[in-house]
Write a structure and sequence with these properties.
Largest sheet: 2 strands, parallel
Order of helices and strands: HHEEHHH
Strand order of the largest sheet: 1-2
Number of strands: 2
Length: 130
């Protein structure tokens, strides 16, 4: 890992870029889907807050430079899988078919390029003191 890159030991610019793109899709499509299902635009607000806060607050030391609340690697993977699911399912609910298919392909690309990092996180990346 390049010390100045901000990437974890098994992260690459491609995996980080795809993961960020998936987060953006989840942050847009997830609240749109919640608003549609709840038939209320107000329902999108708490959905957006939760979807943005989860990856920003909970991180695994050694994977991210800034850690607000340290969690083990498995917890971080769970948060990211949740965001991937929200991106794919939310886009399928809220967006036209072509955009939904593009979102699902983006999720797949993120999972493929991020496999090494996910395996590292699941294999024992732990917060300090655990």
């Amino acid at each position: 890992m390049d010390a100045g890159s901000g990437l974890g030991p098994y992260d690459t610019p491609a995996s980080a870029g795809f993961r960020f793109a998936v987060e953006l899709v989840a942050w847009i499509a997830g609240p749109m889907a919640v608003a549609r299902l709840a038939d209320s635009g107000w329902a999108a607000i708490p959905a957006l807050v939760v979807l943005v806060a989860l990856p920003a607050v909970f991180s695994t030391p050694g994977d991210k430079q800034r850690v607000v609340v340290p969690v083990n690697g498995g917890t971080r993977v769970g948060i990211e899988w949740l965001l991937h699911a929200v991106a794919a399912i939310g886009a399928s609910i809220a967006w036209p078919t072509l955009l939904a298919v593009a979102a699902v392909l983006l999720v797949c690309a993120s999972l493929v390029t991020g496999t090494a990092r996910m395996l590292w996180l699941l294999g024992g990346a732990e917060p300090d003191g655990d």
